[in-house]
Design goal:
single chain, about 425 residues, alpha/beta, Rossmann fold, seven-stranded mixed sheet, four-stranded parallel sheet, 14 strands, elongated
Length: about 425
């Protein structure tokens, strides 16, 4: 369907230094992205310009240099660390005689490799189709234009129009299927909200160690690797937190600077776990020299997906790579935990996260003194089952005096079960 050279595993990377901060990319991140996609970088071409060239993005001389590198190194793909327009991509392919991929296309390729679930695959395909639809070219020259006259009348549309129509149809089909998935997720979320189970969502820059932390906290075997976008499909696990009760911990896709808009749109259902969380654990790789800009990028994406107002607890991960850094909890002026310093890989300081979660989600606890008549033995048994009785006494009249500490969720459930009559027994 598309006029494209065959891609391969040996690449020439191209990085351009632009003065505008908004257009800047990191060369070391391009190397990581390329290796995460399974591509071997044979050479790197760097350049500096005040603004991109409309024809090649780089200057025409630099484009020739890239083509020479491709030929000399026998590379079969050129990867740009920037977003290219469809025209720039085609012009570069013409001069380099091989496939040219921009940063967005590379990220989409990694996502396509990583998608495991049916939903993840649909979301990636949707993002790819939206990206490709802007890059359609007339690959079928014999149908390049509609012709008239005897023996020259075509089917009424060019091959390009046919391709666009097929892509539009496929996008509509995927959107319908994703809508079903979104409704199922909505039902699950509503059920958790009805049960008033708090959701804690892990967010952070890609490769910050979210999945390793998730595995350490939940003792599960979610795929974790030292590469970008190791996690694509959201994973949910139940956790028990002392004095809080049951919570849901969600592991989500990592963010990256200039995350393609097609991806943000496609992963709307997945990112909703982040939007509707009670607390975000913002995982930061403190050993990364770009940690501050990574934090800013995550904040930017959170704002973009309407999750900027969700309360955050920062997890400063990978302290084992720093000298003299010990696990600890940093607090604000009110004594509320705001940062926890840990190493998920070395399993150091994880108990401090649970302590901080207990404090951050703990205000949803109730401390009560109940005076129950002997006839309320069933309620007493339920309170012991919930492990919420801290002390018990019997007064002279035989009434049970119980000191109770339990989550607001469990208390509200009990209130509902006893038709809101429990207030009568509070001392």
């Amino acid at each position: 369907m598309f006029d494209r050279y065959e891609g391969g595993d040996y690449a020439v990377l191209v990085h351009m230094d632009l003065p505008a901060e908004v257009d800047r990319e990191d060369l070391s991140e391009l190397h990581l992205l390329a290796s995460s996609a399974g591509v071997e970088a044979l050479g790197v071409v760097t350049a500096s310009r005040s603004a991109p060239n409309p024809k090649y993005f780089v200057g025409s001389g630099k484009a020739e240099e890239i083509a020479e590198q491709v030929q000399a190194l026998e590379a079969n793909i050129v990867i740009f660390n920037h977003a290219l327009s469809p025209t720039q991509e085609r012009n570069l392919e013409k001069i380099c005689k091989c496939r040219v991929l921009d940063r967005t296309g590379l990220i989409l390729d990694i996502f396509a490799q990583r998608a495991r679930t049916h939903e993840g695959k649909l979301q990636v395909e949707l993002a790819q189709l939206r990206h490709i639809s802007t890059r359609l070219v007339r690959g079928w020259t014999h149908l390049e234009r509609q012709k008239g006259g005897i023996g020259l009348r075509g089917p009424g549309e060019t091959q390009l129009e046919t391709d666009r129509r097929l892509i539009r149809g496929r996008i509509k089909n995927i959107l319908r299927r994703l809508e079903k998935v979104q409704k199922q997720r909505e039902q699950g979320r509503r059920a958790r909200q009805r049960a008033e189970i708090p959701t804690v969502s892990l967010v952070g820059y890609t490769n910050a160690g979210k999945s390793t932390l998730f595995n350490t906290m939940t003792e599960s075997g979610v795929y974790a690797a030292d590469q970008l976008f190791a996690t694509l499909d959201p994973t949910l696990r139940k956790l028990e937190i002392e004095d809080v009760g049951r919570i849901i911990l969600a592991d989500t896709v990592g963010f990256i600077r200039h995350l393609p808009h097609d991806l943000v749109a496609a992963f709307k259902a997945t990112l909703q776990e982040t939007q509707e969380a009670d607390l975000l654990l913002h995982v930061v790789d403190v050993a990364d020299e770009h940690q501050q800009s990574n934090i800013e990028q995550v904040t930017e994406v959170l704002t973009e997906i309407d999750a900027g107002e969700v309360p955050q607890l920062m997890i400063c991960n990978k302290i084992d790579k720093l000298e003299d850094s010990l696990p600890r909890i940093d607090r604000d002026d009110d004594g509320k935990p705001i940062r926890v310093w840990v190493s998920a890989q070395a399993n150091v300081g994880i108990e401090l996260i649970f302590e901080a979660l207990k404090e951050r989600l703990g205000p949803q606890m109730v401390n009560l003194s109940l005076k129950l008549p002997p006839s309320m033995g069933k309620l007493r048994g339920t309170l012991y089952q919930l492990n919420s009785v801290s002390a018990e006494r019997i007064d002279e009249q035989g009434a049970l005096e119980l000191d109770v500490k339990m989550s607001v969720v469990d208390w509200n459930k009990l209130q509902k079960e006893y038709d809101n009559r429990l207030d009568n027994y509070i001392q």
